[in-house]
């Protein structure tokens, strides 16, 4: 098949909208779509300092690559979760990705910072649960401590559709009231945005291949059996039968999101007595879970610092 624009050999067949594109015109299409997403949802301003949380995977690497190419002031943060060979491999990929992108990389090593890696804590709490708590705290505190205006994550259309689907199936209305392409900043919570919000996982994979970004394909050992994977498979089957299902589902949700806002509870946030970050009680969930006696230090010594942070 031939590219719809130039007639050269097609690199990819897009199912929605249905068309064939060569590699060069697909890259143009992808970057134009990211730019339109940023403008449509007012995600970023040209002069803002952007932190991209880069995992070594395709989504975050593509996010950093495109934002850098579009002229944004991008720096990257990699959180080494201390999950043996998987984390070491992830960090190697993140370093190589940032070298190609031309963006500074900062690394936070969970085991060196907190004494144990993810999966090594004796707790009844599910591993993915406290891993999420840890990552959210670290990238928000890092961004806040170092003066970043906004955090960009690599969530794509498949991620968003499966998250909405999962929360609808379980009627988690509080989550449904807050989900979207941008989470506004408030106090010490730094604004978070999703530039790949309207791009599918398949398109992200194709873009990484087209621009030469290699990424880790191994799945986190603790993610096996996660229900989100099952929901993605269901949505993929529906998309296969009826192209456009995912984007129409997500756009429909955004139009009706206000219906869930009544479920939001007013929560009075205090400052954690240990680290000063937002907390519902005397200590924030992060400091409480990890049993900290002094706050972690995430302040960058200088902009070229690529060494792991410690207490």
Automatic annotation (TrEMBL):
Zn(2+) 2 binds at residues 272, 275, 284, 287. The keyword NADP does not apply. GO terms for molecular function: 4 iron, 4 sulfur cluster binding; ATP binding; metal ion binding; transferase activity; tRNA binding. One of its GO terms (biological process) is tRNA wobble position uridine thiolation. Keywords: 4Fe-4S, ATP-binding, Iron, Iron-sulfur, Magnesium, Metal-binding, Nucleotide-binding, Transferase, Zinc. Its cofactor is [4Fe-4S] cluster; Mg(2+). The keyword Nucleotidyltransferase does not apply. Residues 14-95 form the Rhodanese domain. InterPro entries: Ncs6/Tuc1/Ctu1, Rhodanese-like_dom, Rossmann-like_a/b/a_fold, TilS/TtcA_N, tRNA_thiolation_TtcA_Ctu1, TtuA-like_LIM_N. GO terms for cellular component: cytosolic tRNA wobble base thiouridylase complex. Zn(2+) 1 binds at residues 3, 6, 22, 25. It holds the Pfam family TtuA_LIM_N. Gene3D superfamilies: HUPs. This is CTU1/ATPBD3 family protein. It comes from Thermococcus litoralis (strain ATCC 51850 / DSM 5473 / JCM 8560 / NS-C).
């Amino acid at each position: 098949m031939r590219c719809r624009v130039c007639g050269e050999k097609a690199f990819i067949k897009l199912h929605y909208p249905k068309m064939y594109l060569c590699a060069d015109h697909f890259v143009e299409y992808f970057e134009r779509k990211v730019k339109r997403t940023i403008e449509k949802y007012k995600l970023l301003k040209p002069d803002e300092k952007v932190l991209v949380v880069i995992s070594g995977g395709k989504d975050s690497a593509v996010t950093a690559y495109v934002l850098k190419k579009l002229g944004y002031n991008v720096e990257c943060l990699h959180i080494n979760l201390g999950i043996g060979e998987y984390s070491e491999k992830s960090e190697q990929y993140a370093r190589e990705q940032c070298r190609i992108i031309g963006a500074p990389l900062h690394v936070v090593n969970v085991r060196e910072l907190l004494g144990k890696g993810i999966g090594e804590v004796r707790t009844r709490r599910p591993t993915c649960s406290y891993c999420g708590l840890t990552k959210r705290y670290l990238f928000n505190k890092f961004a806040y401590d170092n003066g970043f205006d906004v955090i960009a994550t690599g969530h794509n259309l498949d991620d968003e559709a499966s998250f909405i689907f999962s929360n609808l199936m379980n009627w988690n209305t509080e989550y449904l009231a807050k989900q979207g392409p941008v989470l506004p900043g408030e106090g010490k919570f730094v604004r978070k945005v999703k530039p790949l919000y309207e791009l599918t996982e398949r398109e992200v994979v194709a873009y990484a291949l087209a621009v030469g970004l290699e990424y880790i394909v191994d799945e986190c050992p603790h993610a096996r059996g996660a229900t989100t994977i099952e929901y993605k498979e269901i949505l993929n089957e529906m998309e296969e039968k009826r192209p456009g299902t995912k984007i129409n589902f997500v756009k429909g949700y955004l139009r009706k999101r206000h219906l869930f806002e009544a479920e939001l509870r007013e929560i009075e946030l205090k400052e954690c007595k240990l680290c000063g970050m937002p907390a519902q009680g005397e200590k924030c969930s992060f400091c409480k879970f990890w049993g900290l006696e002094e706050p972690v230090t995430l302040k960058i010594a200088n902009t070229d610092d690529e060494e792991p942070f410690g207490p």
